[in-house]
Amino acid sequence: MYEILAIAVAAAAGAGLGCWQRRRLATLRYRAEDEVALPDPGPRWWVVWAGMLAVGGLAAAAVFSADPISRLGLAPLAVSGPWLAAVDADVMRLPNRVLGGTALLMAGAILTVAWVGAGPDAAIQTLIGAAAGGGLFAVIHFASRGELGFGDVKLAAIIGAGLGPLGLGHVCVALLAGSAAALIWINATKHTDRHLPYGPWLLLGAWIAALIPS
């Protein structure tokens, strides 16, 4: 009973956060000068649902996990993820300020996990996960001569860091699931533009991986 209540509270908090983010996004203040003339992105009610599912889903994964504290590092990404996805989908850019803030909060959360009981292994696994995710996407970035944006490299490193304490398998699932979702979307919508906002799909992959038991 208490587990269900905790999940419901977390989902409600995520929905409330999504409502706040949606209102802030509607101002379009995140757009740079050369992005002002882009088409209006619409009401983006999906941000509310994304916030609810991200926070509520993470809470559910933690509640029903044998090691709930290991998912604490993903909390900052669950909070900032809908915002990052919305901005990337609109202007195909992942703001460094939000990525940096997420990384700092995640580092604090991981240190808390290590301090509470996971020990130095959690910090080591975080570094390995960040190196694996960021390193792989950095190789793709340079091999594609920038076709894969460096913001996606940073996001992959952050996702790897958050999932690192759960194991490298979770990092691989996140990156593969996100890439597969992007390919499915391209085929389903007959997307012909060579540029694609990759961030939303990477975040979806991270959410899927976070739900897998560790």
Instruction: Describe the global form.
Output: globular
Estimated radius of gyration: 17 Å
- Helical amount: over 70%
Round the mean pLDDT to the nearest integer and report it: 91
N→C terminal distance: 23 Å
Helix- and strand-based class?
mainly alpha
Would you list the SSEs in sequence order as H and E? HHHHHHHH
Tell me the fraction of residues in β-strands, as a range.
Answer: under 5%
Descriptive account of the structure:
The protein is an all-alpha fold. It has one domain (2-211). 72% of the residues lie in helices and 0% in strands. The chain contains 8 helices and no strands. The protein has helices at 2-25, 46-63, 75-91, 96-118, 120-143, 150-163, 168-189, 199-211. Helix 1 runs antiparallel to helix 2 (46-63) and helix 4 runs antiparallel to helix 5. The chain starts with a helix and ends with a helix.
List the helices and strands and how they pair.
Blueprint lengths: L1 H24 L20 H18 L11 H17 L4 H23 L1 H24 L6 H14 L4 H22 L9 H13 L3
Helix pairs in contact: 1-2, 1-3, 2-3, 3-4, 3-8, 4-5, 4-6, 5-6, 5-7, 6-7, 6-8, 7-8
